[in-house]
Amino acid sequence: MANGNILGIDIGSAAIRLVAVAPDRRILQTVYGFHHGDIPGSLERLSDGFDLTAIGAVAATDGTPSLIFADRRHDHQLALIRAAKALHPEARGLLMVGGEKFKRIRFDANGEYAGSRTNTACAAGTGSFLDQQASRLNLSGIKQLSDLAIGNQHRIPKIATRCAVFAKTDLIHAQQEGYELTEICDGLCRGLAKNLTDTLFFENQPASPMIFCGGVSRNAAVAKHVSELTGAELIVDDLSHFYEAIGAAYQALDEGLAVSPGRFTAASDLVRAYTVTRQCDNPPLQLELSDYPTFESLDAYHFSVTSDAYQNVVEVDVYAHLNEEAPLSIYIGMDIGSTSTKAIWLDREKKVLAGFYTKTAGRPVDSMRGVLAAMDDLIQNRGLSINIIGVGTTGSGRKFVGRIIGADLIIDEITAHARAACELNPKVDTIIEIGGQDSKFTTLKEGMVTSSIMNTVCAAGTGSFIEEQAQKLGCALSDYATRAEKVWSPVANDRCTVFMERDINYYLSRGYTVDEVLAAALHSVRENYLTKVAEESRIGDVIFFQGATAKNRALVAAFEQRLKKPILVSRFCHLTGAMGTALQLADDAWETSHFRGIGLHRRQIPVRSEVCSFCTNHCKITIAEMNDGPVAFGFLCGRDYDTRHFVNNNTSGF
Predict the structure, then answer these.
(1) Which tens digit of pLDDT belongs to each residue from 506-544?
(2) For residue range 554-609, what is the model confidence (pLDDT) as tens digits?
(3) Got the DSSP string for 346-392?
């Protein structure tokens, strides 16, 4: 074999790794960095100072893009094992955590391969997940997050690392509860480590020592928590994030790959000739079959809620002429969701009089008080005489707020949304509902619910994701539909919010317009819903789209385009949960209410919080101590505060 070094290359979803290996297997030079979707440009930048003239052959992992030249490509798992055996023959296992994947490889007593397990199409527990959370915390990257986390000497908040959207909510909660930035970063790292161990080590504990490699192995806080949770001694060396590139080079040497120095002089020599093409396979979004509402009301305004510790805005819509002379008897329906709180006024004839909408912002008591304050303001400004004959609640906070306000009726969201849909169109057989953090799919027959499915662990494709992408792309939510309509768009990942966001960043780096990317996100949301939540074969012909996301006309068009059926949207789509609750009160002809009164918004209601630990969601629970016992809000599963175990609220059988 001629003298010359071998270049090992491993380019993943987030990072580039280059390793120069001598014929005697000495590691001479390494380069590591993030490519942000621009692989050729980043390769040229990162390889500055790298001696390419001494490289005689190139060995790459099979995951390295084909635009990168390689004399030979090797299976990434075999490359991992080859590097592990060479660098740490004493190891009895290997844990690799990269940008989008993590893997556990087991070795037997003789150091031979004994099996492996990897993650699914979910970014929870990966480097991309941490990178996204670092961005949300306004940090420079995961290195700063790691440095802050490892320096934490105090308490560790529980963060729901099963989903990027749920994690976002928990970050807000932790900040509101006074946790320091170092504590929050440590909570993220521990949550990620817990997710790794729950996924990969649930069958048996690892044998020591265990190699920890991949980009996330550079995070000392994650390594510490993995070691504590598994009880294993971890091997983390200076080359831990280069194992696949090293293994590829070692395998090439094992196979006697011929080398010829002088073949490469610049990074451009490693890039095959290619043409950047903009490929837009998603057709334009445009409603053709559906009759879409204008969402007009007689009067619409924003009511500002301000207190010493809380500021919010309630959107108020008045839908009917309110008589200022005669007493007005009304039913009040309230929907307290994870991201928004809604309320509606209904008269005895089931006519919608007014609607109220505000952000929950992790503070259901304050959002409820804000809605009541907006009602009080409307009554005072219009000089109304109001007789409240029934109050009901629904949503994830229905029991919590219901007991605080003295609700007469507390019903689940499925029942409430179904009741509203049947009032709007008695022939409805399918309800698509996409909320802030969850999505539901409900089928009906002759006004009766026949099945219902709800996502509880992954929030990909929910309103929070759409809102976050709009914010990052500098698009107001009110302009989203107009900008996303009538443009062809590329295909983005539909399995996970982190992967969707990765594709969005990639397309932006490749010259796609913001409008094309906005449209791509909506196509992904639709595909995620139809794949993960809905039973597509059970979708009927009279389809209602409910929830605030239905106010995005382009998203409704995405469902119409895919299902090739009209999609019905009510001008009350964002209020249908509250509407269904009020309708149920009217059906029951409720006349005497136990409601504590609209003036309740003036009272201070002391609350505290705790974390549920019965499953990996680690729900942040808000608790109000009432005279008749504690009342809690915030469970993603079906349990209430007195039930001391996880409750699966998906009883549909699917």
Answers:
(1) 787 677 888 998 999 899 889 888 888 888 889 999 999
(2) 999 999 999 999 999 999 999 999 999 999 999 999 999 999 999 988 887 777 77
(3) E-TT--EEEEEEEE-TT-HHHHHHHHHHHHHHHHHHHT--EEEEEEE
- H or E segment to which residue 186 belongs: helix 181-200
| Amino acid in position 512 | Y
Orientation angle between helical segments 477-484 and 553-563, nearest 10 degrees:
40
DSSP class of 489: B
Average pLDDT (30-53) is: 86
pLDDT of 155 > 90? The answer is: no
Written as six digits, the tokens of 650 are 């998906």
Report d(CA 135, CA 558) in Å as an integer.
29
150's tokens: 């490892």
DSSP 211-246: EEESGGGG-HHHHHHHHHHH-PPEE--TTGGGHHHH
Alpha-carbon gap, residue 641 to 619, rounded angstroms? 12
Half-sphere exposure of 388 (CA within 13 A, CB side): 23
Residue with tokens 């504990």: 205
- Cα(394)–Cα(343) distance, rounded to whole angstroms? 10
Count CB atoms within 10 A of the CB of residue 112: 10
pTM of the model: 0.70
In the beta sheet, which residues pair with residue 501? none
Contact 307, 404 (CB under 8 A): no
CB-neighbour burial class of residue 140 (10 A; exposed 0-12, middle 13-18, buried 19+): exposed
| AA identity, residue 85 | K
What is the spatial distance between Cα 72 and Cα 390, in angstroms, rounded to a whole number?
A: 74
Nearest alpha carbon to residue 366 among 291, 311, 436, 425: 311
How many CA atoms lie within 13 Å of 472's alpha carbon, on the beta-carbon side?
18
SS3 category, 94? strand
Tokens 């409008």 — which residue? 515
The CA distance from 558 to 491, in Å, is 13
Taking the C-alpha atoms of residue 343 and residue 523, their distance in angstroms, rounded to an integer, is 30
